[in-house]
Amino acid sequence: MNRIDIARLTEADSAEAFGLARLAFGNLSPGRWRSLIRRWTKRPEGSEGALVARDQARRLVGLAPFQVRSNLGSGRVLWVERMIGFALLDAAPVNKALALGLMDIAETLKCEGMDVAIETRDMALRSALSTVRTPRESSLVHCQVRS
Question: What confidence score (pLDDT) does residue 131 get?
Fold first, then answer.
């Protein structure tokens, strides 16, 4: 898996992305998914939505739903409920590409940071979120975004 392309989820991606979403959120119903897709795609550059990752063969290999929130301590943050990266051999490139895409979204939406819910055993995601890309610094669950 050499190249991973990241883009905002569109209506055209919704049926394919539902399968990945169900892997992470087992109780997600088709009706709830359709409702989220309508809300996320109503304003394509808005403060909530999802990123999708595709490999060179254009297969959907990742999904990351996000929403801008205001926290008391850190102000405006990009909240990511969960990142889903799928690969037969190594999901690290997918997770890293999604993490970098989310950092770009956070910067575009003028967020002060990024909060990502992760499981302690999710080493691939922890590794992706621990990378440093100047002028950004990141930790496992909080990423500072500076201009």
Answer: 59
| CB contact at 8 A, 50 and 10 | no
Q: Please provide the average confidence, as pLDDT, over all residues in the chain.
A: 82
Phi, psi angles (nearest 5°) of residue 51: -100, 145
Q: What is the CATH number of the domain that holds 128?
A: 3.40.630.30
- How far apart are alpha carbons 60 and 13 in whole angstroms? 9
Tell if the pTM clears 0.85, that is, is over it: no
Query: Hunting for tokens 């909080």 — which residue is that?
Result: 142
For 10-19, letters b (16+ CB in 10 Å) and e give eeebbeebbe
Q: How many domains does the chain have?
A: 1
CA atoms of 91 and 84, how far apart (whole Å)? 9
8: left (phi over 0), alpha (psi -120 to 50) or beta: beta
Which of the four pLDDT bands, split at 50, 70 and 90, describes residue 127?
low
How far apart (Å, rounded) are the C-alpha atoms in residues 100 and 108?
Answer: 12
Angle formed at CA 96 by CA 133 and CA 26, multiple of 5 degrees: 140
Domain range for 133 is 5-144
Task: Provide the pLDDT for residue 128.
Answer: 64
